[in-house]
Design goal:
Layout: H1 15-40, E1 52-59, E2 65-72, E3 75-76, H2 78-87, H3 101-114, E4 120-124, H4 129-137, E5 153-157, H5 163-173, E6 177-181, E7 188-192, E8 197-198
Parallel strand pairs: 1-4, 6-8
Antiparallel strand pairs: 1-2, 2-3, 4-5, 5-7, 6-7
Helix pairs in contact: 3-5
Length: 199
């Protein structure tokens, strides 16, 4: 759009000319705001460019390790998602479930925020209905409708990051639920892609 036609000419103009100039400038600014509005509403991750996003895991129950690029820009890599699905399976019975990519993005952001050099230690990823019910019967305090059942939750810690610092970093994301379990027999932070909440 050429701005020449909307710029007031130099020299003397009456009040009506000045008012018209102001009106034209308001019109141009309004058009610019309208054009920019769709971009304001787009989530920040949509502008990630083509930078690869990587994750590293170590499972505390199986001893397995996994390091991979799971996404490039806005594109998630199917083979990587399948590998993560298998890695985060219910380790008690081998059941698997698709893992929410948004959960992986939370982990990627946590790794950046904490500047960790270690893999995420996984205590629990996907949890099958049978395992969830068994844990409930044994009094482990798991929710009957846990997001672990949907592949939308994970329990983690980092060897080089204090648990309280990991919790605070997760809370700063405001991306879902954050649970804090600092005890000798658990010692992990729960994160999920549900509504924003803390316990």
């Amino acid at each position: 759009m050429s701005m020449g036609s909307s710029s007031p000419q130099r020299g003397g103009r009456g009040a009506s000319g000045t008012a018209a100039g102001h009106a034209r400038r308001r019109l141009v600014l309004g058009c610019c705001a309208a054009l920019a509005a769709p971009f304001v509403c787009v989530p920040r991750r949509a502008y990630a460019g083509e930078a690869p996003r990587t994750l590293r895991f170590e499972h505390t129950h199986t001893g397995e390790q996994l390091a991979l690029t799971y996404a490039v820009g806005g594109r998630y890599l199917d083979a990587a998602l399948e590998a993560i699905q298998h890695f985060l399976r219910d380790f008690r019975n081998g059941a698997t479930h698709a893992i929410d990519p948004a959960l992986l993005d939370q982990l990627h952001r946590l790794a950046a925020l904490t500047a960790t050099r270690e893999p995420f230690e996984v205590i629990s990823g996907y949890r099958s209905p049978a395992t969830n019910e068994m844990l409930r019967r044994e009094g482990h305090g798991v929710a009957s409708h846990s997001l672990h059942l949907e592949g939308r939750a994970i329990d983690i810690r980092l060897a080089d990051v204090k648990l309280a610092d990991l919790r605070d970093a997760a809370l700063s994301l405001r991306a879902g639920g954050v649970g804090y379990y600092p005890s000798a027999d658990s010692d992990f932070v729960h994160i999920d892609t549900g509504r924003t909440r803390f316990w």
